[in-house]
Amino acid sequence: MKTKFFLLFLATASLYFSSCGTKESIQRDLSIQLSPVAFTIAVSDTTQKEKKFAELSSPVNLADSISKNTSGQFALANINSAILSSFKIDLVNADTTKNNTNNFSAYDFIRIQLKVPGTNPISLAMINNNSTAAASSLNIPVVTGATDFQQYLKSGTLTYIISGTVRNATTKIITAKATATYKISSSR
Length: 188
What we know:
The chain is α+β, with helices and mostly antiparallel strands and 188 residues long.
């Protein structure tokens, strides 16, 4: 009888001690859209040579975004990776009436780069042979071979360079806003 109780005690103790060292690992993927950044594109002449349309700084408060999206379960220190998932530009005062070029139809090629101090800019998104159809909104395809941007997102400010070539001259200053969305992987 003592042997049965002793074996039962050993089995219970071994189960208890084997589960004490186990930690729960949680992973979460988030889609975080940064606040839109307003900028202007100057009147442009037709050009086949790439020119800079704008350089804009975007404040990034990633700590708050992660905390809000995970109900406080994750923090900035929990980020494993951050990859750009989309980059969209909306033209606020575009004119999409027939035969007007003050919209995306004026631009043949558009490139979005991330300016990183001490290095060459990193290409994030680009479109070749943009449509000739009048449009006031454009989702620019993300460059394949996704770069992990977690170190840049933690910096607090991102600087984007928007450049391209002009197919048809524009006749007015175009006001725009750019919105970047990142896929953030976190674990704890």
